[in-house]
Amino acid sequence: MPARSGEIRARRLMRKLRISAWGLSAGFTGSDYGRAKVYGRQHLYPLNLLAPHRLGVDGFLFGMRATLLHGAGDVRVEQVPDAVLKHPSDAVVRILASTVCGSDLYPYQNGPGANGPVTIGHEIVGVVEEVGVEVRTVRPGDLVICPWAFSDGTCEFCREGLYTSCVNSSMFDLEPDVVGQAEATRVPLADGTLVRIPGEVDEALLPSLLTLADVFGTGFHAAACGAVKAGSTVTVIGDGAVGLLAVLSARLLGAGQIILMGRHKARTDLGRQFGATHVVADRGPEGIEAVRALTAGRGSQIVLEAAGARSAYDQALGVVRHGGVISRVGMPQYDEAPIGMASLFRHDIRLVGGAAPVRAYIERLLPDVLAGTIDPGKVFDVFTDLDGVPEAYRLMAGRQALKVLVKP
């Protein structure tokens, strides 16, 4: 699967030729800078950061295709400048597979605000095309997983495995050339961020490998924060991709009883394949009563909340056992919720979880994926190319797709 060295050399040459051609055609032979219209705005770029390969209709040059969010419900695939090295710790990765994440639906439904249009997407598997002079752990031709958060791998938080709190941390979409749903991307802090996949890899494993960039690691983070162990009683709230992979993660950690709360049969059927021992379709008081009936009236020792809605948190409070744990990894869509005497304190209930440092879990989960003993890639039920990304957002927003895999 990794690119051949000859192909990479050819791509490098084409990038250099495109830079030279752009400088001449734009008349900047005596200048170090040129302007490019990117995402609807004028940006000043050093010439060595622009490697476009064609002239746009308005006279500006573009080099690759990427997904841009223009407004609420308005996603477009457009030409943008090529991803190129900016810093000596950067890598450029040609994207083989990306996806639409559930968290992408929040900006999709609400718009990018005053800063739009903006790039979008943050989960990728790809092939390294170029590396900066300081990069040591990957090289051109390597197949790599790129987690959603960038980290240097050396600070005190990275050494603790809390890569999302890296003192030099950054994320996709914060810079116009760092984008997940595109043909290529620049990856900052390549040594601490990218994970090289060893050996030859069957292309059929690509979907499962892609889950390690975010969604599987997030589900595993829920289970790890909840301290799931052999024999644990676990309830998972939410039958989205994260919830289903939280089920798989709980099974990997040895949970004895796994109750999945979800209402979409195709998804809960997959949850059973991943290890759910029971499915509860009811919500509210009826759902709480059903879970308690399955747990001798006491509730679950561990609740993995993977939905992010306030109602899901309330459901978690209703099904957790005294002395139990609620582990939240669903992106909260609320700012206020009960955490006081009656809800948590009185019954010694612990609240844990947060943004998943998925880089910490890739090495733990990768061997099972490569061996084929687990298949987290089953969460992908729609496959498309870049042209299909706008439709992919509509399908996911309408709950007509569980998770979409994008092959640029």
Automatic annotation (TrEMBL):
<keyword id="KW-0560">Oxidoreductase</keyword>
<dbReference type="GO" id="GO:0008270">
    <property type="term" value="F:zinc ion binding"/>
</dbReference>
<dbReference type="InterPro" id="IPR011032">
    <property type="entry name" value="GroES-like_sf"/>
</dbReference>
<comment type="similarity">
    <text>Belongs to the zinc-containing alcohol dehydrogenase family.</text>
</comment>
<dbReference type="InterPro" id="IPR013149">
    <property type="entry name" value="ADH-like_C"/>
</dbReference>
<dbReference type="InterPro" id="IPR002328">
    <property type="entry name" value="ADH_Zn_CS"/>
</dbReference>
<feature type="domain" description="Alcohol dehydrogenase-like N-terminal">
    <location>
        <begin position="88"/>
        <end position="188"/>
    </location>
</feature>
<keyword id="KW-0862">Zinc</keyword>
<feature type="domain" description="Alcohol dehydrogenase-like C-terminal">
    <location>
        <begin position="241"/>
        <end position="355"/>
    </location>
</feature>
<keyword id="KW-0479">Metal-binding</keyword>
<dbReference type="InterPro" id="IPR013154">
    <property type="entry name" value="ADH-like_N"/>
</dbReference>
<protein>
    <submittedName>
        <fullName>Alcohol dehydrogenase catalytic domain-containing protein</fullName>
    </submittedName>
</protein>
<dbReference type="InterPro" id="IPR036291">
    <property type="entry name" value="NAD(P)-bd_dom_sf"/>
</dbReference>
<dbReference type="Pfam" id="PF08240">
    <property type="entry name" value="ADH_N"/>
</dbReference>
<dbReference type="GO" id="GO:0016491">
    <property type="term" value="F:oxidoreductase activity"/>
</dbReference>
<dbReference type="Pfam" id="PF00107">
    <property type="entry name" value="ADH_zinc_N"/>
</dbReference>
